[in-house]
């Protein structure tokens, strides 16, 4: 699909919408011409105009329809199309009233648009424009912009995703009862985040709030003629919580059982996937909305880091260590599966750079000698942008 010339008025309207959608997340992405080209291939002028009118807060059907001049019989399919495109998300009140809200761009509309698995000329063109967008960020991987970007990632930014381990957490909690014979002030209750993908499946499976979607990143790469090097299935990422009802109702996902979710997790683990957890508004204090089963090839975050396009930052809970280095045979299996190049072989022994380790657990799972251990250590890990000549995947 050939790019058409965009008028100044059209660009201005798309730019205004991009800025508005950016405010729906605690993070934002640069509003550039490459981003607006992604908008242009999907969003019609009529949809653009409507989305600019509706504001940023959730609206019921009566409220949102008031922003359109269409009669109800025409407005309902118009709104349904916006929901199917991922340009409007929905959730429900306790009284079962459907509310409609403008989503963020990334993580948000981008993922929803490709996650239904459909193969159309429009979706293929969108994938190509997304690829152009990410490559445009890679143009800043030169001195001094690389240094400034890395400084911002390390000192100014915050994590918007978490990396959880594949297995159950193993910490033992010892309960000791002490009779102090006096009243004591108890601290406020604190909810600790789940650190295992299985804990998340249990949490949302008990509520029947698990759905499976086609991985946005693998769809994007596939449409670019770059199928997953790890041969992960297209339908391999998991939606959680209240977003599942929206994704299923509008044909983006399908509900699965806890057992089906665990089967997906086990399959992707064997093939080398790690588990990134995303939250509403990319705010780690908000509920989880998805588990992305990622590899260092396809993932828009880790794969782009591997290609020297962007740095990355994540909240991590474990660090991999080799307690007895003498047991290591130097086979290098851990290097193949480490998503962030935190492992190297020196003098025929594996060495783990703990500052780069994101505690994903792949090296522990894949080590044929079983000598790698995960130690609990909650921390923020910042991975700086390397020179393109050092990138794992050349572009």
Q: Distance N terminus to C terminus?
A: 23 Å
Helix content: 25-40%
Radius of gyration: 23 Å
Number of strands: 12
Portion in strands: 15-25%
Side by side, the strands of the main sheet go: 3-7-8-5-4-6
The major sheet is characterized as:
6 strands, antiparallel
Output the helix-strand order. Answer: HHHHHEEHHHEHEHEHEHEEHEHEEHE
Which structural class do the helices and strands define? Answer: alpha+beta
* Overall average residue pLDDT: 92
The total count of helices amounts to 15
Shape, principal axes of CA atoms: globular
Question: Can you tell me about this structure?
Answer:
The chain is of the alpha+beta class and 395 residues long. The protein folds into two domains: 279 residues, no CATH class; 69 residues, Alpha-Beta Plaits (2-Layer Sandwich), CATH 3.30.70. The protein is built from 15 helices and twelve strands. Strands 3-7-8-5-4-6 form a six-stranded antiparallel beta sheet, with helices on both faces. The chain has a two-stranded antiparallel sheet with strand order 1-2. A two-stranded antiparallel ribbon has the order 9-12. A hairpin with a 2-residue loop joins strand 10 and strand 11. The longest helix has 18 residues. The two termini are 23 Å apart. About 6% of the residues have low confidence.
List keywords for this structure.
395 residues, alpha+beta, Alpha-Beta Plaits, 2 domains, six-stranded antiparallel sheet, 37% helix, globular
In brief:
It contains 15 helices and 12 strands. It is an alpha+beta fold.
Give the topology.
Elements: H1 8-22, H2 33-42, H3 45-53, H4 61-65, H5 72-84, E1 89-92, E2 98-101, H6 105-114, H7 121-138, H8 145-156, E3 161-164, H9 197-205, E4 210-214, H10 216-223, E5 235-240, H11 243-249, E6 254-255, H12 258-271, E7 274-279, E8 288-294, H13 302-306, E9 312-321, H14 333-337, E10 343-346, E11 349-352, H15 362-366, E12 373-383
Antiparallel strand pairs: 1-2, 3-7, 4-5, 4-6, 5-8, 7-8, 9-12, 10-11
Helix pairs in contact: 1-2, 1-3, 2-7, 6-10, 7-10, 9-12
């Amino acid at each position: 699909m050939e790019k058409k010339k965009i008028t100044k008025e059209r660009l201005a309207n798309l730019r205004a919408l991009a800025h508005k959608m950016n405010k729906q997340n605690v993070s934002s992405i640069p509003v550039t011409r490459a981003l607006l080209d992604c908008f242009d291939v999907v969003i019609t002028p009529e949809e653009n105009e409507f989305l600019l009118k509706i504001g940023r807060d959730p609206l019921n059907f009566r409220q949102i329809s008031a922003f359109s001049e269409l009669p109800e019989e025409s407005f309902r399919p118009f709104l349904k199309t916006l929901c199917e495109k991922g340009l409007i998300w929905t959730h429900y009140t306790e009284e079962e009233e459907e509310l409609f809200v403008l989503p963020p761009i990334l993580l948000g509309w981008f993922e929803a648009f490709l996650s239904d698995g459909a193969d159309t000329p429009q979706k293929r063109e969108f994938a190509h424009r997304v690829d152009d967008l990410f490559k445009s960020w890679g143009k800043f991987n030169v001195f001094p912009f690389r240094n400034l970007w890395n400084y911002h990632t390390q000192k100014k930014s915050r994590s918007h995703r978490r990396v959880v381990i594949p297995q159950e957490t193993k910490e033992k909690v010892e309960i000791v009862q002490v009779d102090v014979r006096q009243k004591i002030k108890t601290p406020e209750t604190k909810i600790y985040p789940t650190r295992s993908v299985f804990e998340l499946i249990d949490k949302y499976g008990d509520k029947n709030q698990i759905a499976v979607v086609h991985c946005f990143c693998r769809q994007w790469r596939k449409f670019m003629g770059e199928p997953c090097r790890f041969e992960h299935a297209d339908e391999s990422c998991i939606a959680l919580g209240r977003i599942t009802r929206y994704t299923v109702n509008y044909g983006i996902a399908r509900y699965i059982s806890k057992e089906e979710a665990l089967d997906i997790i086990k399959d992707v683990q064997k093939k080398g996937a790690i588990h990134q957890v995303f939250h509403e508004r990319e705010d780690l204090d908000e509920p989880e909305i998805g588990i992305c089963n990622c590899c260092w090839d396809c993932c828009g975050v880790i794969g782009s880091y591997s290609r020297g396009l962007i740095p990355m930052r994540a909240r991590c809970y474990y660090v991999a260590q080799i307690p007895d280095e003498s047991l290591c045979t130097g086979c290098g299996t851990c290097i193949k599966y480490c998503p962030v190049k935190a492992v190297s072989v020196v003098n025929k022994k594996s060495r783990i750079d703990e500052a780069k380790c994101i505690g994903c657990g792949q090296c522990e799972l894949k080590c044929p000698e079983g000598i790698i251990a995960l130690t609990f250590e909650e921390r923020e890990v910042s991975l700086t942008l390397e020179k393109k000549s050092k990138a794992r995947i050349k572009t």
